[in-house]
Amino acid sequence: MRMSITKSKVRGRLSLIMGPFVLAFFLAIAAHAAVPGITGPAFKLDAAANYITQPDGMQVYSWGYGCSATPAGFAPYATGASCGAMQVPGPTLIVTEGQTVTVALTNNLPSVTGNTSIVFPGFQVTATGGTPGLLAQEAAPGATVTYSFTATTPGTHSYYSGTQPDLQIEMGLYGALIVLPKTPASNCAAIGSELGGRTDYRLAPSAYDHASTCYDREYLFQFAEMDPRIHQQAELQVQAAQAAGATATALNVTIEPYRAAYFLINGRSMPDDMDPSYAPNYPNQPYNGNPHMHPGELVLLRVIGQGRMEHPFHEHANHVRILARDGNLILSQTDPTKLGGPLLFTTDTFPGQAFDGIFYWSGRGLNWDIYNHQPGDGSVCNPDSNGYYTTASGAPANAPNYYEWCADHTRPLQTANGGPATLPDPLVVTNGLWYSGSPYLGLSARNGGNVPAGQTPLPPGAADQNPEAGIAFMWHSHNEREITTNDVFPGGMMMMMLVDPPVFFIDETL
Amino acid sequence: MVSRKLYQVLLLPSLVCFVSLVAQAQSFRVQCPATTAIHPTPLPSGSAEPAYTGPVKTSATYTPATGGTPITLPFVNNGGAVKCQEVSGGDGYMTEADGSQTFMFAFGPLSGLGLIKQGLPGTQIAADFNVPYADGPNYLNGQPNPNSTVTGATPNGAIGDPSGIMNTGVLNGNIPAPLVAIDEDDELFLTLTNVGMIMRPDLFEQHTIHFHGYPNASAYYDGVPDASIAINIGGSFTYYYLAPDAGTYFWHCHITPPEHLQMGMVGQLYVRPRQNRVPVGNSLYASLQLQQNDLRTTCNPAADILCSVPLPAAPNSVTQVAGAKYAYNDGDGTTRYDVDVPIQIHGFDPNFHFVGMTFNPEGFTDMKDKYFLLNGRSYPDTVAPAGMATEDSDGFSRPSQPLPALITLKQGQRALLRISDLDVTEYQTLASLGMQMQVVGYNAKLLRDQAGNNLYYTTNSITLAGGESLDAILDTCVARDTNFNCTTTVPAGTYFLYTPQLDHLSNDAENFGGLMTEVVVTP
């Protein structure tokens, strides 16, 4: 609905381009994410040029890191995974604390581009081969440099070019390094019981060697922005330099004044970021940004600021407990068994900085039953010591209301059932594409025998983005200018997070 | 100019006609029940907030509207009340500090008009909200409502009849949007009535309310149009919330956010803590211990990684004092203050607003704020009295910027700066001269680690992005004794809050103004 309204306000040409892409996305199957990457600890990477795609139809000439040889493995799953010669962001490198990591980088960029390199902030790096540079040892065109370091600190880290970074990072030469804890916390719940014995997509049970860092699900978001004029200049100059008789030996790209027009999550703009990881239509942008979760699950957010700008990212629906910044766990000064990081509903991401945080959604305190249970319908909610319906209070692992907040069980929302609120007439409202069709969570609440008065009937196909009738929340940059794609709303640094009913299996490989 | 006026005069009745047809289907509907199952006793007008003496296990009875057997369910009573507020979603004009008039998409008051006009929160208990509005002679006769002269008998009652809603709501947009303030354990019925944007008849835009920061939100009442429903022109949607944990939140429209926020649909919202309601003489620490007896109000860091007010690291003997106010349920009295100062940081790009008024497609990439606003005003308007008004395109003047940012304190007093930022383009910094700010809360959460240590910090400068909030105590007292009595104060005089981002100290082409206000300390 809002799409069509917006289209009337955007330039006609762009809306025509945008239309088919948006439509294609709406017909796609819901996709999920996890933190896909390649395992080491020895990595063979290269830097190369290719094109990335944006939802307005632009093919943007970019540079990216990729795999120069088949990686040792993929995590957390290998089905459908790939690592080509160039991707944005670069391959997510997954290692374990204490390992000696080696990264051999071959410079396959066009020779007129000059040298390139990688810096690994926070680690003591030694390099062999290559040629000396200012921030790092560099690889000349066609040559290889090998970096080596000990993965001393767990957590989420960035890596990026240390050569002419104002141009090379803008062009896409950045990526993530995930260091898993050497001794994960032993108190973390076995994921099998949390998910009813389903597949575990975590890289580890905890983010750090600390009992307060357990998690059930994880997502990695790398934020960056692009000025397409820079990319166009680079493309034209490289083409000119490769023409017969050309004499140019270096690029001369004007960076300032900088005018960002694309705002990226893992190299993609909304809605592309919600398509699957490794989707064939984004051959050089393999990673998506599409969080799903069940009520009560602890969700680890790994976030990196890869560009030049700050991005205040608003996680609708709850706060995020910041665990660590750049891999440094924030603990109480008086009791190191306790966390000390802030609780934020808008998480700041600064250039070059990474943070880890924990989020969950439980529905506690709404004062109405999110499942629309009715007295006498046979539904059960026995509270555990924290007030939720879990295995600790006898819930089967596949309970349709697993982790329900029991104090609100069968408490009505609508006046028709004795509750406080009268819902608006369905004829005077507009339904969203992710609207579940009712205020409630799950198909059984929407289509159950006890249909509440005033419930909005959805036209056929209206809930294509949310067929499981989860409840959806927008996660987005609150520099709202950045939830656009080259002047068109919606787009950019935005995604829809879904809290799915517990009975819906979240397959992170799709 | 004449033709434009004529156009407006013709447009207004046509829109009213359209809406009156819709109204027959009862699409305007204001909700504020006198009682609910968990608040069964109506508070009389003028009541003080019910005292908090710990959770009481009781039961609530629900009777379906369709009849049938009443159902009794267990319930934990912590006090609170039914609170209500009604706002319009539409458009309007405001006055910049250089005298320019700026077109806005904006929210305006449809209840609590007298309170809003005085710069106060417009939120009321049901007994005050449900009194028929009676103020201003032209309220129902087809002329724009003068929007409360605050001389009538009941200038704060909610406007519920369709013609009154249209006469009052059209072009009555405010910046910031009407101030909402509730107490923990309240039920809030916040009604949004979409009166249409009369200056943009080409748009059939919905509006929504996003309660920014509401924990464990439902998608239905979260205000994201993609994830819920959004109210069309000519209809009302009542948002229902059980008050979340105390803190400084804010609210805004979530339709096309880069447009509707930039255009002015931003407002303030804060939640006062249970600790304000602890009886005089009772221990604050023991009262926070009582909150551990209800699973909804408890904070056990070992079980809940997102709970923010664990008991202080060590017990204390601080007791409740008459009239004391706190930012959070701190259990140690450290967030006590005297004066609430809601401050919202925002920015307007005049080019974007002009393009938005003239039916042209707006560009987002080049959006650049040139007016920097505290409570919708730039200096020197920030220190002007409450109730700034702007002449609208129909020739009538309506209140546009009700809330000054002037801070007046007596020596010894502490102000709680409830700062929120809804700028959509960049970070903004606010600094204090002469007095320091102690930051006690961030993003509507007390700054306290899980072991119970306060992590407050003292600073002369805070920086926020759009979508962030912060609680800072501005203290005129330099030293206090153990009974919290001030022993040394700062000198009386005028102090400043201003931005050291020097390019933000401007009102478009004017070089001096922008993000600045005064703090007047009197003996």
Explain what this protein looks like in three dimensions:
The complex is a heterodimer of chains A (510) and B (523). Chain A has 510 residues and is of the alpha+beta class. Chain A has 6 helices and 23 strands. Chain A has helices at 2-7, 12-27, 165-171, 191-194, 228-242, 443-447, and strands at 37-39, 42-53, 59-67, 73-75, 93-96, 100-107, 126-129, 144-150, 155-160, 174-180, 217-226, 262-265, 292-293, 299-305, 311-315, 320-325, 328-329, 343-344, 346-349, 354-359, 429-431, 471-477, 494-499. In chain A, the strands form 4 sheets. In chain A, strands 11, 12, 14, 16, 17, 18 and 20 form a 7-stranded mixed sheet that branches. A 5-stranded mixed sheet of chain A has the order 4-1-5-10-9, with no helix packed on it. Chain A has a 5-stranded mixed sheet with strand order 3-2-6-8-7. Chain A is globular and about 85 Å long. With 523 residues, chain B is mainly β. Chain B has a domain at 2-31 and 81-273: Immunoglobulin-like (Sandwich). In chain B, 11% of the residues lie in helices and 32% in strands. Chain B has helices spanning 2-23, 113-117, 126-129, 162-169, 257-260, 284-291, 350-357; strands spanning 56-62, 71-77, 82-95, 101-109, 124-125, 177-183, 187-194, 210-212, 229-231, 236-242, 247-252, 266-272, 325-326, 336-337, 339-348, 371-374, 388-391, 397-401, 407-410, 414-421, 428-433, 437-442, 445-446, 457-459, 461-464, 468-475, 477-480, 486-489, 493-498, 516-522. In chain B, the strands form 8 sheets. In chain B, strands 15, 16, 20, 22, 23, 24 and 26 form a 7-stranded mixed sheet that branches. The longest helix of chain B is centred in the N-terminal third of the chain and has 22 residues, at 2-23. Mean pLDDT of chain B is 91; it is low at 1-25. Chains A and B meet through helix 1, strand 18, strand 21 and strand 22 of A and strand 2, strand 9, strand 10 and helix 5 of B.
